[in-house]
Amino acid sequence: MKVNIFSPAKFCILHSAFCITVAAFCILLYSSCSDYLDMPSDGRVELEDVFAQRNTIVDYYQSLLGEMPPVGFTYASRQVTPLAVFCDEAEDVNNQVSGAPYYWYNGATTASFNPLYSSTATVTNSGDIIIYNTNAWLYYFALIRRCNTFLQQIPSNTAIDIKDVEVEGMIAEVKVLRAFAYLQLMKRYGRVPLTDTPYDAAHDYAKDTRASIAQITDFIITQCDEALATPENEAQDMAFLWTPRSNTQRTKIPRAFAWAVKSQTALYAASPLFYEDGSKYDWSKAAEITKAALDQCLEHGYTLYNRAMNDDMNAKTLNTYGYYFIQRADPTRALDKETIFESKLQASIWTYAALPIVQGGLTAGPCPSQELVDAYEMQETGLPISDPASGYDETNPYNGRDPRFYASIYYNGALFKWVKGASQYLTPRFYDNRLNGGMTVTLKSDTTTITTTGDTSYIETGYLGGTIDYDEAYLIFEYTSNQAVDGAYFYVATGTSAIPTSPYKSAPITLSKADAWTTYRYDLRDFMDKYEFGKLSSHRLGLKLNGTGLNMEIRGLKIEMATPPRPLTSVETYVGGNCGISDNTSEIRRTRTGYYLRKFNSAVSETGNNDDGYFKIFRLAELYLNFAEAAYNASTPEQKYGDLSATDAVNAVRARADMPPLPAGLSKDAFEERYRNERRVELAFEEHRFFDVRRWKILSETDRGVHGMRITMKNPPADSTFVYEPVPMVTRQTYADKYLLYPIPQTEVNKMLQYTGTSWQNPGWN
Questions:
Q1: Per DSSP, which regions of 62-199 are E strands?
Q2: 129-186 residue pLDDT tens
Q3: pLDDT reading at 542 higher than 90
Q4: What is the per-residue pLDDT across 695-730, written as a single tens digit (0 to 9) for each?
Q5: How far apart (Å, rounded) are the C-alpha atoms in residues 715 and 704?
Q6: Which of 15, 321, 362, 473 is the most exposed place for a label (fewest CB within 10 A)?
Q7: Mind giving me the DSSP string for 567-602?
Q8: Is residue 150 within 8 Å of 61, Cβ to Cβ?
Q9: Strand extents, DSSP E, 583-705
C-alpha cells in the first residue's frame, strides 16, 4: 500500500519552524484518532521513499523525538501558566479574570470545552514550534500513529545501507516514546484503545475497544522491556544508550527513560484510581518494578544532585536544591547525574511568575498556596508545623523551615538578589576565523568543538553589538580539553583587523586540561581600563590558542556585567509592601496568595537574559519516591527490598535537602501522611501533584479551594509587628469525582458511539 505523507523536511511537526507552518500543524493535529487515515497522493514524498534511505529514516526518527511534549508554563493561551494552578499547589493571579484558570475554577469544563487545552503556538528563537498543551487525546494519538508507522516500516528495509545498531537503537527509542505517549493518555483518560499498527483505510472501527488498565500497563512495560533488551553498544552514537555521547543529543531518549516510564506506569496502575481487582499490577508488583528501575539507574551512575555551592551558584539561588532547577541538565551527565530527561522548553519565571520589582515581568502567575507553604516542615526537628513539638512559631512563620521552601517560594521577608540595571550580555558562539592558522571548528547547537592542526590558532566571536560599561565584567564559559593550553590570550578585534597587538590583548592565560565540563571565568576589567571595549558595534572578542593536537569543546560563552555591590532587596508581601498582596482582580503583577514562585528562577534573570531553568520530565528523586510509595503499601515502611526500605528511600531524598530522617517505626497510616507530604514538597510545581491527588482519590479533600496569607502591620509606624491572617481564595468547582479523569473530547465520543454503539465517555461527563 502506498501512503503519502509530508516530505521528511516538512514532516517534522514540532521540530522546526522552517519545516512546517502552524496552520499545517493544526490541520494534522486536530484530525480525530478515527480520521488518521492516509490522504490521496499530492506529489509529495511517499512512505516507501522515506524508508528507502538512511538520511530520511533518521530524519523521521529525529522528528519523532522532537515531538516529546514540553513541560512547564504550557497551559492557557493568554497568560501561560503551569499545571500547578489547576490543583492545590497554587492559585493563578487570573483567578477572577476570563482565562483557563478562571474557567477551571468555576467548573466550566465539559467534554466539548476543556480549559486545560489550548491551540496556541509559539515559535522559539531556535526555530522550534511549541504548541501549548493542545488537546492531549488528539496529540498523543497522533504521536502514537507516527510511531506505529515508523515501527511498521523500518524492519522491512534490510537492504538499506544503514547499520544494524542504528536500526536497533531507533526502534528501541521509538518504542519507549510510544509507551510514554500511552502513559500520558492513561494518566489523563484512564482506559484508552491500544494499537501497535497504523490504521489503514479498511480499518473496522466497530471492533475498537478501550483496553483495561492492566492491558495498557502490560503494553507499556512490555514495550520498554523490548527496548531495554536491545544491546547497549555505548560506542555508537545512535544506539540505545545509557548516556548520550554529546550535549547535542538532548532529544535522544536514554535507557533510564524506559525504566522511569516503567516505574511511573506501575505506580499509577497500582494506585486506588486505576487498580483493577485481580490485576497483577498491585503494590507488590509496583515495588518490584520501581526497585529494579532505581537499582539500574544507580548502577549506571545516576545520583541525587548535590554539588557544593560556589560563588556563581550563590549569585543565582540559595542552595543546591534551588540550583538544580535553574541549571540546564547536561545529557552526558558530567555535572548533573540526577536528571533522566529534561523538557525542551525553558521556564520564564521572571516573566510569567514575576515579582513586581523584577524588570520585565508580566504577571505574578501561579501564586503558591498557603496549603503548599504549610507542607514545608521545620528543619531542625524535621516535624510538620502542625506538631506542637516542631518549633514552629506562628508569629515568625517563615523561620527555620525546610531548605526547599526557601529555594521554591518568595515569602514576606525573603531576600531577593536583585541587580537593578545590571545585565548579562550573551555573545555569539566562537566561529572559524580566516586567521585560524591550522585548525577546524565544528559548530553545533550549543557547543563549539575545536581541533587544532597547527601550533597557533585564532578564533573569534561574532560582533558584540553592545556596550560594556558596568563596573564589573567577566567572560565566562565552560570547556573540556584533552590537554592544557599555556600562553593563550584574549584579544579585541575591530572591523577586519589582522592579528592584534598590545594593548588589545590580555595577559597570558592557562586553560587546564579538563576531562569534564569546567567553568572558566576571566575578569575583563583590564580590557576595560586599556580600551573602550564593546563600545563599537564592530568589536569582536578573540581567543588565541597554542599547541597542535588540541581537542576542545566550548559552550555557554557569555559576558556577565554588574554594578556592585549587589543589593539584597527584601520581598514585602504585606499589604502596601513592594510586592504586597492585592485584591484588585485586574492587577495581575501582584500576588493573590501572599507568595510568589521561586523554583526554576535564577536571581539574575531579567529582560535580555533568561537564566531560568528547564522542567524535568523524569529525575532520580521521583524513582526513590515511587519505590517508597509502592513498598510501604505492599508491606510496611520498614520492610527491606534488597538493601532499601520505603523509609530509607524517603530519607535519601530528605538528606539531599538537609532535612532530618523520618523517625523509624511509623505506622503505615502515619508514614503515608509523611510520605505524601514529602512527595508534595520535593516535586512541587513539576506536574506530579495534579495527578497524585487524583490517583489517590483525595480530590474532594484537596481541590475545593486554597488559601493565601494576608499580612498587615499591627499599628505602623509605632508598632510594625506583622499580623498573619489566612484568607480563602475563590471556591473551586473541580473536586467532584468526574474530575478524577479528563473528559474524552465529545467529537471523539460521538464518532466512536457511531462506530461501536458504545459510549467511551468517562464517568460524569455525559
A1: 90-92, 121-123, 129-131
A2: 444 447 899 999 999 999 999 999 987 666 677 888 999 999 999 999 999 999 999 9
A3: no
A4: 999 999 999 999 999 999 988 877 889 999 999 999
A5: 34
A6: 362
A7: PEEEP--STTSTT-----TT-TTS-SSS-EE-TT--
A8: yes
A9: 596-597, 614-619
Which residue do the cell numbers 545520583 mark?
A: 303
266, 224 contact by CB (below 8 A)? no
The yes-or-no verdict on residue 565 having pLDDT over 70 is: no
Q: 326, 338 in Cβ contact below 8 A?
A: no
Residue 373's nearest CA partner among 338, 342, 335, 404 is 404
The CATH T-level fold of domain 424-562 is Jelly Rolls (2.60.120)
Determine how many CB atoms are found less than 10 A away from the CB of residue 126. Answer: 11
Where are the strands (E) in 194-280, listed by range?
A: none
State the helix-helix crossing angle for 646-656 and 620-634, rounded to 10 degrees: 150
Q: With contact defined as beta carbons under 8 Å apart, do 277 and 214 qualify? A: no
Give the C-alpha distances (Å, rounded to integers) separating 184 from 189, 210, 248, 268, 616.
9, 15, 26, 11, 15
Note the Cα 725 to chain centre separation in Å: 34
Residue corresponding to grid cell 526518527: 61
Burial class (CB in 10 A: 0-12, 13-18, 19+), 755: middle
pTM of the model: 0.80
Cα–Cα distance for residue pair 160/157, rounded to 1 Å: 6
State the distance between the two ends of the chain, measured CA to CA, in whole angstroms.
39
Q: Which amino acid is at 279?
A: S
CA distance 344 to 741: 26
Of 117 and 387, the one with more pLDDT: 387
Closest CA to 50 of 192, 200, 174, 160: 160
Grid cell 503494553 is found at 219
Pairing of strands 431-432, 614-619: unpaired
| Mean pLDDT computed over 518-537 | 70
Distance between CA atoms of 491 and 198, rounded to whole angstroms?
58
Residue with cell 486505576: 274
Sheet of 431-432, strand order: 431-432, 456-460, 539-546, 485-494, 509-511
Sign of CA dihedral 597, 603, 606, 612: negative
Distance, in Å, from the CA atom of 518 to the CA atom of 532, rounded to the nearest integer, reads: 29
Indicate if the pLDDT at residue 125 is higher than 90.
no
DSSP notation for 519-533: EEEEETHHHHHHS-T
CA 33 to chain centre: 28
**Closest alpha carbon to 424 in 561, 567, 533:** 561
How high is the mean pLDDT of the chain?
84
What kind and span of H or E run contains 148? helix 136-153
What residues have CB less than 8 Å from 604, skipping those under 6 apart? 315, 316, 417, 419, 422, 424, 560, 611
In 3D space, the residue among 574, 575, 598 whose CA is nearest the CA of residue 373 turns out to be: 598
Helix (H) or strand (E) holding 459: strand 456-460
How long a stretch of residues is the chain? 766
